Amino acid sequence: MSLGNAFCVVCGSEDELTKERVCVSCFKKRTTLSKLPETIQGYRCPKCLMLLQLGKWGHHDSTDYHEGLVQEVLEIDNRTCSLGIGILSEEIDDRNTRLSVQVSGFIDDVEFEEIHTTIARISNSVCPTCTRKAGNYYEATVQLRSSGRKLTENELNTLRKTFDSYLESIDPDPMFFINTEGKVTGGYDMVLGSKALARSWTKHLLRKFGGTSKETNSVVGRKDGEDLTRLTISYRKPAFDLGDVIRKQDRYWQILAWQKDGPVISAIDRHERTGLTWRDLEKTSVECRINEQLDVEILKRDTSAAEFMDPNDWKVRTVSLPYDDDGSQTIIRIGLIADEWVAMPRIGGGDTDE
Questions:
Q1: Confidence category of residue 349, pLDDT binned at 50, 70, 90
Q2: Which residue blocks in the chain are alpha helix, DSSP H?
Q3: Rg for the chain, CA atoms, rounded
């Protein structure tokens, strides 16, 4: 050791020193990059096979779940930068997996690399969702009904399918489950595990199909000094669909869009739009449903009329062109209104305006 040169305060070496005035070798001996226990405990629900991770239950593949378990218990020196973690798994049996964990990083510009071996053990634990299902737990009921008439089988199926598609489009939650469901007199009932899900799905139905909803709450007990309530939402789908032709004041209108207070309707004979309340809509009658309207090919046209082949008897018919025809269309939409074919303007339906 030369006089006046910097040296390691531990071993006296004059090799490259760290910020703590020790050589790299001594620094590595005195510093631990990471710590990992010999065993890691995980939990799996035997009923639905969901796994517990970071305090939440959910479905995970084994690789992601093991990574999550390691990250929960792995201790890293808070001075570490450029951290890298690699995990190699080796299944021992259905409940035990050996994990080799490689951890690398830099502390005070010194590179570290450590390898740990641990056993991930999976034990059974019933998740809250299955516990509540077994106890017939539920928070809300959504009643699907129609205004003025009974829902058809096709309408019931369409409304029910929206629940599955809506559930796939939102963030998953273990409480978003169906307790029971089925047809009842006048409609369909769905008993759900979450009030939030019942409300959000009802809003989705209102945007997509229009209609009205009414909420009622019933007290079923008390907990910690607060009332425990169950929610019932009655959703009433209008007896109409977007594109249906209705009769109002001796004129024909198409339902264009749903609003909160009622539909927007568009005149068949000219460019004119107006709004109706739900009460006013119920007083009208459907003259031609959207599923009864047809797209047909124009055989011949002039400035005011077009010829087409009637799909009922394959005879050539003539119909007045709609007001929005620009002369370029080769296909027109027709509907049978008061036993006569009428050409429909090309209007677009929409969701409820918020």
A1: very low
A2: 24-30, 62-73, 128-134, 153-169, 195-209, 278-282
A3: 34
